[in-house]
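Most newcomers find our protein records easier to grasp once they have seen one. To make this concrete, we reproduce a full record directly below:

===
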Amino acid sequence: MRKKAVIFDMDGLMFDTETLGYQAQGELAEEMDLPIAFDFDYYLKQVGRSDKDVMPELASDFGDAELAERFLKRMKERQTGIASEKGLPIKKGLYDLLAFLKEEGVICVVASSSRRKEVSFYLELADISQYFRYQVCGDEVSFAKPNPEIFLSAWKPLGIPKEDCLILEDSLNGIRAAYDAGIEVIMVPDLIVPDDEAKAKTIAILPDLHAVMDWLKEK
């Protein structure tokens, strides 16, 4: 394969944490008697975004910034609690893809909108931390996806041309960020159905990470 490095998103790409987040939000919305309806469409608006990016909207919707901050903190705790208790849903093909990339000598990096605390927790829970040279997390950059900062921050230390790098994403915000960073991106859809923009800004849309491995083997 011709790529020398692969940058992985995390939520919705490596793990089905989006479903865990939706479950956690629904439970807490009821427990905390929140003033808005947390339906699936509302949750989708948060996918691929950092806590810092989402917080102003939650504060506006709740009419209470302190309540929004408390809710988001408890949601993350509930989400990781569900993963610890019931197991972390691993996306199809993740382990095979990581093993293949290691054998090929390809550098793997994580660029996630989640905070480092959550990124470290999930990577360790899945026992895959050793596959990644480093991680760039949502609480370590100034601007959230779709701003390209997080991907540029993940790419720059590699010291390789952008054309030797590949990004794997599941969200439209992530695809926009990758595209604006000038790095090729493959979409592996999770909750977001690929639209015309996604098709135009990706080099491939594949059903799972095993298909990504097969695609790379052909290059």
The first strand starts at residue 5 and ends at 8. Residues 17-86 form one domain. The beta strands are 5-8, 107-112, 134-137, 165-169, 184-187, 204-205.
